[in-house]
Design a protein that fits this description.
Helix content: 55-70%
Structural class: mainly alpha
Number of helices: 4
Distance between the termini: 44 Å
Order of helices and strands: HHHH
Number of strands: 0
Radius of gyration: 25 Å
Shape: elongated
Largest sheet: none
Length: about 110
């Protein structure tokens, strides 16, 4: 028998690499925070657009206006603008979840 397969020893050089202290967290500039916030809001708007479009199609029903050339494009632009406005005002929380995961980890100064 070869021994316990779960008992694995690491070479000394690899062991030093894994136990070395982690690099200090990079400070995040205000412009990076603003870019992250905008990207998170835009992503939430992208996710909301098909949901709102589906709701609009469900509740609008058939009308003569829907058969007008360009009506579907105009409706899509309106739905996209509504999704962006909802996301800009807090949306449904997707942007906040994304921003929470983009924050650098808090490192305690314990010793």
């Amino acid at each position: 028998m070869l021994g316990d397969p779960m008992n694995v020893s690491l070479p000394a050089s690899l062991n030093r690499m894994t136990t070395a202290s982690a690099p200090a967290a990079k400070a995040v500039s205000r412009s990076d925070v603003a870019k992250n916030e905008k990207a998170a809001r835009d992503f939430e708007a992208l996710l909301l657009t098909p949901v709102l479009d589906s709701l609009q199609k469900t509740f609008a029903g058939d009308s003569e206006d829907a058969k007008t050339p360009g009506a579907s494009d105009y409706r899509a632009l309106g739905t996209q603008a509504l999704a962006q406005a909802i996301a800009a005002r807090g949306g449904i929380g997707i942007a906040q979840l994304i921003l929470r995961h983009l924050q650098p980890p808090k490192v305690s100064g314990g010793g």
